[in-house]
Fold this sequence. Notes:
There is one protein chain. By secondary structure, this protein is mainly alpha-helical. The protein has helices at about 1-15, 90-115, 120-125, 125-140, 150-185, 200-220, 245-270, 280-305, 310-340, 345-350; strands at about 30, 40-45, 50, 60, 65-70, 75-80, 80, 225-230, 235-245. The chain has a three-stranded mixed sheet. Helix 2 (about 90-115) packs parallel to helix 9, helix 4 packs antiparallel against helix 5 and helix 5 runs parallel beside helix 7 (about 245-270).
Amino acid sequence: MNGKNITWANHSKRKPMSVCSQSCSPGYRQAQIKGKPLCCFSCVRCAVGEISHQNNSAKCTQCPLEYWSNKNNSQCVLKAIEFLSYGETMGALLAALSLFGGSLTMMVMCVFFRFRHTPLVKASNSFLSFLLLISLTLCFLCSLTFIGRPSEWSCMLRHTAFGVTFALCMSCLLAKTIAVVMAFKSRRPGNTAPQCSVPVQRTSVFVFTSLQVLVCVLWLTLAPPIPHKNTAYAKDRIILECQLGSNVGFWAVLSYIGLLAILCFILAFLARKLPDNFNEAKFITFSMLIFCAVWITFIPAYVSSPGKFTVAVEIFAILASSYGLLLCIFAPKCHIIVFKPEQNKMKFLMGKQ
C-alpha cells in the first residue's frame, strides 16, 4: 500500500504531458488550439526580439532594450553597434580622400612658397593665399574627426572644427574678392577710393572668423553635442551617433558659412569681367557656384539619410566643397607657374601682351 502511494505521489509531481501535441522546444511558445481540449496546443515561434529558453513555455519574453534575440529565439544577445569606422570600405575611402586632399593642398602651398617672389603669386595676394591654403588643409583634415567611434570630445570637436575652418576659408575668399574689387576701382581715372590694405584684409578675416568662433563657443557652452545610442531607427542594432545637442546651434553655424559664401559669390560675380589677363574673381565665382551647389544638395540628403550614412553625407559635402575650392582657385595658378612660366610676368598679368 505504501509503495502504491509513493508511486502515485511521484506521478502527481510531474508536469502533465499532452497526448495530442508535441513538446515545444526553446524559441517557441504554446498556443491553444480552438475547439480542442486545453492539453492540445500548437507551437508558435517567438516574435523577433522575444525569446523562450525552456520547453513548453506558455509565453515569450521581450529582450531588454540593448539586447536582441538570436536566430533560434532561445536567448538574448547584445545588439550590434553601428558607426562609421576606419575598418569598413566607406570609412577607409573617405579617410583616404581626406588625407589625399590635405596632401595636395600642402603641395600647392610648397609651390606657392617656392615661387612666392613671382608676379602671379604676388598678384594673387600671397598672405591671403597662404592663409586660404592653411584653412583648406584644415577643412580636409577636419573630416577625419567624423570617422570612428563617437566620444564626448570627438562630438564636440567635429562640428566646431568644421564650422571654424570653413568660416576661415570663406573669410579669406571674401577678403580676396573685396581686395580685387577695390584694387580695380582705385585704378579708374578720378577715383579716390583707397585700396584694401593688408592690415584691413587681416582685420576683416579675423572679425569674420571670430563671429563663427563666438557662435561655436555659445553652442558648446549651452548645449554641446554628445554621443547618443539611437535604438529607435533600427530594432536589431544600436546606431552610435553624435546628438547635436542644439539644432539651433548646428544650423546657425551652417547659416553663417552660407551667408559668407553668398556675399563672396555676389561680389565675385560682379567683378568677374574686370579687365585683367588673370582676374581671380572669375575663378572665385566658379568655386562659389560649386560650393553652394554642394551644400544646397547636402541639406535634403543629410535629413533623409539613415544611421552612419548621415555622417558619410556630411563628410562627402566637406570633401566635395574643399576639392572644388582648391581646384577652381589654385589649379589655374599652378598650371601657369609650373607649365607656362612665360605667362608669369607682370606685363602679361596687366594685359599688355
